[in-house]
Design a protein that fits this description.
Elements: E1 2-7, E2 21-24, E3 28-30, H1 41-45, E4 49-51, H2 57-60, H3 63-70, E5 78-82, H4 84-93, E6 107-108, E7 111-112, E8 114-118, E9 124-128, E10 131-137, E11 145-150, E12 155-158, H5 166-173, E13 178-184, H6 192-197, H7 203-212, E14 218-222, H8 229-239, E15 245-247, E16 253-255
The structure holds zinc ion (ZN) (2 copies).
């Protein structure tokens, strides 16, 4: 499985300021932030499915535009997998005929651009070629999921946006053959109160997560707020968690 980082910043600004979006092989997206806008039309048409962590704009900003671009260039709908509450938010607030057309019924109800499929924590989706994607719990103040990608040879967990909660750590500890953990750290420690209020991690709470994980994956931190990246990374190093970390960057490719 090839996991390509299209965007992993906590905000926009410059060529590396692309928000959360990962391409799995060439047919699957994990989140649909602004990084998806860099794909060519041919690459967009090869996307068969999108796994969405939650409905916040930095994770779905390109989903309406993806639907529009591929609506007439594919034989089947792009399948969107997310928590039921996330799909309801997308239907109510995005594909509502006002913000954007309802591409679950367009170009025609019989052959729409998108189809929406709810996934509950613990459920797996078979995406072919021996690959599976499983929903894990995340805690973000809105319906949210983390995703576990299984290539058949190893696994990668992407946290989405989440606070430090025991259920999240327990779910990671239940994953066998965990090779990679891609995990957010949105705020610096001096913004701990803001991180807590918005259900995000900061270096201190990230360290709590990493010290509670019993396996030894490579840890890639992402979703750093623009302008605060160096400070967040230096604070993470200062906490010296049991697991070492590196910064995830746009263009990185993780193979597992
Ligand atoms: Zn969020
Ligand atoms: Zn976010």
């Amino acid at each position: 499985m090839r996991f390509t980082v299209l965007g992993c910043s906590g905000g926009i600004g410059g060529v590396d300021g692309r928000t959360t979006s990962f391409l799995v092989d060439d047919d699957t997206l994990i989140d649909c932030g602004t990084g998806v806008g860099d794909l060519s039309l041919d690459e967009l048409r090869r996307i068969d499915r999108v796994f969405v962590t939650h409905a916040h704009l930095d994770h779905v900003a390109m989903l309406p535009l993806l639907a529009d671009s591929v609506a007439c260039g594919r034989d089947s709908p792009v399948r969107v997998f997310a928590a039921q509450g996330t799909l309801e938010a997308l239907a109510q607030h995005v594909f509502n005929g006002t913000m954007w057309p309802d591409f679950t019924r367009l170009p025609s109800p019989a052959a729409p651009a998108l189809s929406l499929t709810p996934v509950a924590v613990g459920e797996s989706v078979d995406i072919g070629a021996g690959r599976r994607v499983t929903a894990l719990p995340a805690y973000h103040g809105v319906p949210a999921l983390a995703w576990c990608l299984d290539s058949g040879a190893g696994r990668l967990v992407f946290s989405g946006d989440t606070a430090f909660e025991p259920g999240f750590v327990d779910a990671i500890n239940a994953v066998e053959d965990l090779r990679h953990l891609v995990i957010e750290t949105a705020f610096a420690d001096e913004q701990h109160a803001l991180a807590e209020a918005s259900s995000h991690l900061c270096p201190q709470t990230l360290t709590g997560v990493l010290d509670a994980i019993r396996s030894s994956p490579q840890v890639h931190v992402c979703h750093l707020k623009p302008g605060a990246a160096e400070r967040i990374l230096s604070q993470i190093r200062g906490h010296a968690a049991r697991l070492a970390t590196r910064q995830l960057c746009r263009g990185d490719v993780l193979e597992f």
